[in-house]
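Hi W., the phenylalanine complex you wanted:
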Amino acid sequence: TSPKTVEINGKKYTTDSWFNVSSTVLALTSRKLHLQKDHPVAITRKIIESVFPAPTYKYYNEFDPVVSTHENFDSLGFPPDHPGRARSDTYYINKDTLLRTHTSAHEAELFRARASGGYLLSADVYRRDEVDRSHYPVFHQVEGARVWDRTKVPGGNIAAAVRADLDRLPTHNMKVEDPNPPFHAERNPLQAPHHSPDEAAAIAAHLKRSLELMVNEIFSRAKAAVAASKPTEETQETEPLRVRWVEAYFPFTSPSWELEVFYQGDWLEVLGCGVTKQELHINAGSLSQLGWTFGIGLERIAMLLFQIPDIRLFWSRDERFLAQFRGVEDNLQKLRPFVPFSRHPACYKDVSFWLGGVSAAGGGKGGAVDWHGNDLMEVVRDVAGDCVEDVRLVDEFMHPKTGRRSMCYRINYRSLERTLTNGETNEMHERVMKGLVERLGVEIR
Ligand code: PHE
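Structure:
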C-alpha cells in the first residue's frame, strides 16, 4: 500500500500506480552529502570545481532531486523504449515525475538560461540497483558543460576561439594511452549539419584536456595523501598516472567518450562525456551556441581518493568516520587516506523461494516473467538498511514439471559500525522473508 502523497524537501507530490520509492530512499533525499562540510563527497566536489574556475564556470549545487520524466529522459533525446526508463531501474513518484537518475536532467534548463562560458552542477542522483560494497540507491554526480557562442567570437570562427581557450589551459604529464579512439560513424556521427569536422575536433580537444586535468588533480591529491600518511623512508617513486579514452554512446552527445584510469591493475571507467547534441541548444532557443558536456560519479572517485572500502560509509553518522575528514575542505593539504575501523564479522543467510503463487507452466500468472532482482534488493534495503553488505543470487532453477521458478539469494549481514547479535540478525532475516512474501508474492521454500 503506497501513500497517496509524499513530501520531498518541503514539497508535496501526488503518487499513482507508478510510485516505487521506499521510505528508506525517501528519507535520504534530505541528506545532501555533497553540501555537508568536510564530507568526503563534498571535498571531492570542491576538488573538481577547482579545476573549472569561476567566472568562466558557474556552480549550481542546490537543484531539487524531483524532476519530470521529460527533463530526465525526453529532453535529452532518450528513445521512448530506453531501458533506463524501466520501473525496475528508476524511482518514480508518479508516471510523469521521478527522482533524477543523473545530473544531465538539468542540462536543458541550464542551456535555456543561456549561461555563457559554462557550468558545474553537483547533486544527489537515484537508481534502483544491487546491494554490494560499491552500489547504493543514492549517489552523487557532477555535471559540467562548456559553451561557446558563434556570434561572440572574432569572425565567428569557433574552432579558432576554442583552440585559443585550449592554449590557455595548463598542461599535464599524464600518460594518455588512447587519445583518439576510432569511432563507429553510425553510433557517433559528426553532427554534420551543425559543426564542421574542424570545429568538432577543436571542441573535443578542449574537452579532453579539461577532463585529463581534472583526473590528474584528483589522482595527484590521492598520491600526495598516501605519501603524507607514510614515514618518509617508505615513500617511493610512483609511476605516472595512465588514462585512456574509449568510445561511448549517450543520447545527448555525439561523438561521445568515457575516460578510464588504470588503478590497482584494472581499467576503471570514471566519467562520460561528449560534444553536446545541437538539439539541446536549439531546443533551448540558443541556435548560435555549441560545446561539450561531461558527467562524473563522486562516490567512486571519493573511494579512490580516500581509500574508502564500502559505499555505505558515506551515509554513516559515526564520528569515527566523519572526524577523519574534518578541516580538509578548507585545507586540502590535510587530505589523508581513510583508516578503516575494525571489520565486524559477516553473517550469511540464505533465502530460497518460488516465484509467484501460481504455476507459470499452467498458463496462469506465474509472476516469473515480472521478476526483477532490484525489487528484492529494495525489500532488503528497506528492512535491514545499512546492516546488509551485499546480496547475491546463488542459485536459480525451473521445476521441470510445474514450470515454477525457484531462486536462492545469499544475504550478508554485516554492520560497519558494530557486531550484530545472532538474535538481531535472525529477526532481520525473518522480516526480510516476510517482506518478500507480502510485497513480491513469493513462496518461501
Ligand atoms: N549522464 C551520464 C550518466 O549518468 C553521463 C554523461 C553526462 C555523459 C554528460 C555525457 C555527457 O551516465
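The chain has two domains: 31-65+100-334, 347-444.

W.
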